[in-house]
Design goal:
Elements: H1 26-41, E1 46-48, E2 58-61, E3 70-81, E4 84-89, E5 97-102, E6 105-111, E7 117-122, H2 124-137, H3 148-163
Antiparallel strand pairs: 1-2, 2-3, 3-6, 4-5, 6-7
Zinc ion is lined by residues 90-92, 132, 136.
């Protein structure tokens, strides 16, 4: 069990697509445990492998229902519908929240730790978390979803923050 530092915006690993898992071996089992520990330590509701610097298509989430942590190996988004504007944040972009428009409903197909096919589907926070983690696994980040002026402003804020400048806007 290990808690990893969470990679933050500017770290190139967040922009790299992860690679599918060919075999669920000990390395994958350890990775899943580390992701769960790091997610709970943050605390957060989801964590993708590249957020701790591992380029494998593995993510975990816990939407704080009574079901506990759930594991997504080789997850793919198979269906989305509707639209939902929601103020969204990301552990890799700490302290920032943006109104992000995404489909409201999402259905995801993945493998669990036994290699069995599992499906998760829903709207609200569940639909949001599923889409957010799958976006990470493809090398995406939530700001990619903003329209051009909002994205420009977000990147300017992040650049100024990185330089230690105060934002006067
Ligand atoms: Zn995130």
């Amino acid at each position: 069990m290990a808690i990893y530092p969470i990679r933050t915006f500017g770290d190139p690993v967040l922009r790299l697509p992860t690679k599918p898992v060919a075999e669920i071996d000990d390395a994958v089992r350890v990775l899943v445990t580390d992701l769960i520990d790091t997610m709970y330590d943050a605390p957060g509701v989801g964590m993708a492998a590249n957020q701790i610097g591992v380029l494998r298509r593995v993510a975990v989430f816990d939407t704080q229902d009574e079901l506990g942590p759930r594991i997504l190996i080789n997850a793919e988004l198979v269906e989305t519908s509707g639209e939902w504007l929601y103020e969204e944040g990301c552990l890799s972009v700490p302290g920032h929240y943006w109104e992000i428009n995404r489909p409201g409903f999402a259905r995801v197909r993945a493998l669990d730790l036994e290699g069995k096919e599992v499906e998760y589907a829903g709207d609200g926070i569940l639909g949001r978390v599923l889409q957010h983690e799958i976006e990470h696994l493809g090398g995406g980040l939530l700001m990619d979803r903003l329209d051009k002026p909002a994205r420009k402003k977000a990147l300017k804020d992040l650049r100024e923050e990185a330089l230690g400048l105060a934002s006067f806007e």
